[in-house]
Amino acid sequence: MRALPTLAPLVAATALAGCTGPASPYPPGWLSYGFPSPPHAAYEIADTVAGIAKSPVGDLEVAGEYAMSLDLSFERAPEGIRVRGIAGGFGGTLSDPVQGAAAADLGYLAGTLDFVMNRRGIVEVESFPELSGLDAEVFSFAALAHDLFPRLPDTVVEPGGTWLDTLRWHTDGRVTEVISRTVYDYTLVGDTVVDGRGLVHIAAAGKVEFRIYTGRAGNLTRQSMKGSSTGVILWDPETRLVVSHEYGRDLVGTVSRPNRAPFELRLTEAMRIRQRR
Known about the structure:
By secondary structure, the protein is mostly beta strands. The chain has a single domain, classed as Lipovitellin-phosvitin complex, beta-sheet shell regions (Roll), CATH 2.30.230. The chain has 3 helices and 12 strands; from the N terminus they run αββββββααββββββ. Strands 1, 2, 3, 4, 5, 6, 7, 8, 9, 10, 11 and 12 form a 12-stranded antiparallel beta sheet that branches. The longest helix has 6 residues.
């Protein structure tokens, strides 16, 4: 099984961190998104999933990965800032014997990312890139905008301070429906320096729950998963954009199919989002 990326490189960078103290508090409103200049940004994104399905016929491996680039453009809008993202260079593979889709090729991604955000984060996601069929069960881009712009606090936060956010999203395609809920606990760790660049280190911990329904009425496959998510966010106070967001998720749940015994599924995911300079 392919080894998963780790958060170690970014965590190690915090060894250079120097938190501000009481004598030099952060100014009010500093930790917020703003209109970037120039009004565009580019990111490289990679996601890897691996797991084990404990089916009645034995343990089956589930594995998949994808990588893509994402070019964002920003426009001022009455609600705040409108962001449009064009995905490029998308490619990946998926082996999912649970659904009989072994060695599927993730070579096609439809749609664009279009959303509105304000100083705290996402206001509304209007569209996002999508995979079709069973591939959408393993890789969904419904939360991509939130991964790029995680929720920031609405009050003044000093190093060590925390804030909460609950992220809910729901997609309903022709074959697959996904319902997701994650409760995030963010902690402002403090200032850090990476490659000579002054950044802000934010730690994120979340509790994840989601359900996936595949097929049609009378012949539905149901997947229910829950677990934890831990991540590291590096935010640039000068551009007011996320420079890097890496997180891992450990999930366990069950899969139920018509006229078959349910079985356990365990998944581990590693997501990496990095700004391209």
